[in-house]
Each structure stands twice: as structure tokens, then as C-alpha cells.
Specification:
This protein has 124 residues and is an all-beta fold. The protein has strands spanning 4-7, 10-13, 18-24, 32-39, 46-51, 57-59, 67-72, 77-82, 91-99, 113-114, 118-123. The strands form 2 sheets. Strands 2, 4, 5, 6, 9, 10 and 11 form a 7-stranded mixed β-sheet that branches.
Length: 124
């Protein structure tokens, strides 16, 4: 079992930057797939970015070139660097983890460990 805790959300103006952090309660390094999701009220939770145990990353088209996912295995922390933020990036952001069993979950339902979320609000 791994527990996750996000931090770093806040309110910024369009064009600004934020860095989200997600602290894990145990080592996740080469054993877990990690990802960031976001969700607005009444909408489905959507994947923003993921990082596999080998360091490979993927991004949603809407954030490519603006967001960077990374992790520091020494301190069990996942990051999401968000630049050139847009009002449409406003959402609750969640980090998620799932044990790597030769593949990473393809859908949100495949991730079994979630943080409580951190709110990001971007004003125009």
C-alpha cells in the first residue's frame, strides 16, 4: 500500500507557472507507474501525464510542451512542472500510482492509489 499527498496548487494568472509535488509514503522508484490527473466538477477525470518506472513519459495533447512530469526516487516524490498556464488548466489535480506488473494501467480505473488532490486555478 502506498499513500500519496499532493501540494503546490494555487491561483495564478494565465501565462504563469506552478510546480505540483506528490509525496509517496514508500519507495515507488522502479515498482510503480505514476501519473497526474485532473478533474473539474461534473467532468470526467482526465490523465495529464504519466511516467513509467523506466522514466518514459507521456502527455495529454493539451499540455504537451507546457507541462513536465518527473520524479525523484531518492525522496519518493513525483512532480508536475506547469508552465504557460491557461484558464482551461483550472482543475483539481491528483497524483496516482499503481504497481508495475509489466505494464502501466491504460485507464484511470487501473490506478489504485490516489492523493487527496490540490486545486489549480488559472485566471485570464
Amino acid at each position: 500500500q502506498v499513500q500519496l499527498a499532493e501540494s503546490g496548487g494555487g491561483s495564478v494568472q494565465a501565462g504563469g507557472s506552478l510546480r505540483l509535488s506528490c509525496a509517496a509514503s514508500r519507495y515507488t522508484g522502479n515498482r510503480y507507474c505514476m501519473a497526474w490527473f485532473r478533474q473539474n466538477p461534473g467532468a470526467e477525470r482526465e490523465e495529464v501525464a504519466r511516467i513509467q518506472p523506466d522514466g518514459r513519459t507521456t502527455y495529454a495533447d493539451s499540455v504537451k510542451g507546457r507541462f513536465t512530469i518527473s520524479k525523484d526516487n531518492a525522496i519518493n516524490t513525483l512532480y508536475l512542472e506547469m508552465n504557460n498556464l491557461k484558464p482551461e488548466d483550472t482543475a483539481m489535480y491528483y497524483c496516482a500510482a499503481e504497481e508495475y506488473l509489466g505494464y502501466c494501467p491504460r485507464q484511470v480505473g487501473g490506478f489504485g492509489h490516489w492523493g487527496q488532490g490540490t486545486q489549480v486555478t488559472v485566471s485570464s
